[in-house]
Amino acid sequence: KEDFQLCGPLHLTTVDWTDPRFRRSVAACLVQGVYILERDRQDKRVGTRALAARWWEAFGFDLYMKLIDEADSSTFGAIYHLAPSSGSDHAPRYVIAFRGTLTKGQAFTRDLELDIHVVKNGLHRTSRFEVAMQAVRHVVSSAYGGGDLWLTGHSLGAAMALLAGKTMAKDGIFLDAFLFNPPFLSAPIERIKDERVKHGIRFAGSVITAGLALALKNKSQSSFSGLSRWLPGLFVNPADHICSEYIGYFEHRRRMDGFGVGGIERLASQHSLGGLLLDVMGKKETEEEPFHLIPSAVLTVNRTPAQSFKEAHGIHQWWKPSHLLQLES
């Protein structure tokens, strides 16, 4: 799935930056461009043999800067600049995109190391994230104006973009974000078929988590509530256990509000139960709130039946036309 002419969204024959489907497809293609940049590097494809450029040039973008991981010299992100003649009032001037894990080739070991940091809620302490934040702050300080900058990423890259977006939102800068298959660190409750059991587990978890947070007098509430003005776009597939818990996370919050106990869930949704238990035992390694928890988002769910986990987790699903994409929050 590297050649844009064979695999890209060729159904997009016109540019309409006001159309959410177009914006989603473009953001996904720009992430794919980062994947192909790294594959071009590994396979030593240069000049006319390189395949990456078509993934951004098709929509009027130039490659402004590659983002390089200093640990292994791999390309993990890119800053794109939209040519002035290609834009409109609804188009971004810049897009910063981050790829996910490459399971083959030279970058796999470093990517796997970053995946472990995601699981341990330590992504913010990595050199790759430092490079990412430097890039975001550079574009914001030099060219930012309203919706001029998009953040986008897939899987590990979505975690990177989400954390960068949260960091900027805490400073009062709310960036448009397109986060594809972002990791949600939780037990796979969403895979339970019995709705009563599933919601019972979520309710019990919320009560316990909120109780522990109150007992520990956790101070992250004001920081978390301050993020409510930021509405990143989350794109998830229910057959992808890496991101599917976002579906239940937001659905459960709506249910708790309906039951009149939304305050419990609003407190619980700011914390991970595992992190609080580590705090109780004195083994918590970081005071950072779980990077994946956010108070609000625009959630899009791909209900198209997936034939495999690879299909459910793939970036390609998000530039394809589909009649089973549902806006759920």
Based on the model shown, name its key terms:
329 residues, globular, alpha/beta, single chain, 41% helix, 13% strand, Rossmann fold, 12 helices, eight-stranded mixed beta sheet
Please describe the biggest sheet, giving its number of strands, its sense, and whether it closes into a barrel.
8 strands, mixed
- What is the arithmetic mean of pLDDT? 83
Number of folding domains? 1
Give Rg in angstroms: 20 Å
Give start-end ranges of low-pLDDT stretches. Answer: 273-286
Strand composition percent: 5-15%
- First CA to last CA: what distance? 31 Å
Shape: globular
Q: Which bin fits the share of residues in helices?
A: 40-55%
Question: What is this structure, in a nutshell?
Answer:
The chain is an alpha/beta fold and about 325 residues long. It has helices at about 5, 20-40, 55, 110-120, 125-145, 155-170, 195-215, 220-225, 245-260, 260-270, 275-280, 310-315; strands spanning about 60-70, 75-80, 95-100, 150-155, 175-180, 235, 300, 325.
